[in-house]
Amino acid sequence: MDEQFAEGSFLGLPDLGGDADILISPVPYELTTSYGQGTARGPAACIEASGQVELFDELLGEELPAGAVIRTVEPWDGEGDTLQEQLNGIGKYASKQYSNGGFPIFLGGEHGILPGILRGCPEKVSLIQIDAHADLRPSYAGTIYNHACAVYDASKNCNLVQVGIRSMDISEKEHMDYNKVFFADEIRYGGSWADQAMEVITDNVYITFDLDAFDPSIMPATGTPEPGGLHWYLVSNFLQRVFEERNVVGFDIVELAPIEGHKASQFLAAKLYYKMLSYKFV
Length: 282
Prior knowledge:
Shape: globular
Number of helices: 8
Number of domains: 1
Strand order of the largest sheet: 4-1-5-10-9-6-7-8
Mean pLDDT: 92
Oligomer: single chain
CATH superfamily: Ureohydrolase domain
Structural class: alpha/beta
Order of helices and strands: EHEEEHEHEHEEHHEHEH
Strand content: 15-25%
CATH topology: Arginase, Chain A
Radius of gyration: 17 Å
Distance between the termini: 30 Å
């Protein structure tokens, strides 16, 4: 196992052997970040912080894993000489996790991992993107594989629903379906946005969660923080509803860029993974 992942496992739980119900899959990929750096260290920091998460969910009134076998698998190996080859490798890595039969979750890394992960997904899904940024550029900085292009391909090939958006280039407007975009500004006023979102989300769902969706007051450790973001209970309530009313087939959380001496952000990321798994398995 890669040295940085040699210590511990997700939630500090031992591997009980046999078939895994949940596969924790680290993808420490960081090749196209354009502002803050450090997302390659995000998976290891999140795993380390997860050992401090209590397994009892005070709101659900039950304890994860509720009998589920959780396995922290070998991280993506980082092989590939070009961005395309690296993303192809991530696609093969994701396919392997899906074929293993457990519920796959992916720990990024930058958001540029998403196209590779979606290639490995065997289901036709609604992609719920929770994010500050639209990420709908056809290309950026001379490549179609940049993190700013993370959901462009998905916007053409699956049912993309965007939540929390508050930063975009004018060129991205033509690729955006405004009936399926829920901007942070409208979300802050409450109302029926969540009902409207559920109306356009189909049965099978994959969730990609960029941590800059959160307001930087609670999540500063990300490469591209944006003011005016989402807060914990609004996000967790929406996610709980998605898990209860739809079939979530997998998810990722990306863009954790740990800050030296600051534990709160990586703990928030670990707690978010825990919450989403609780909604799926408790």
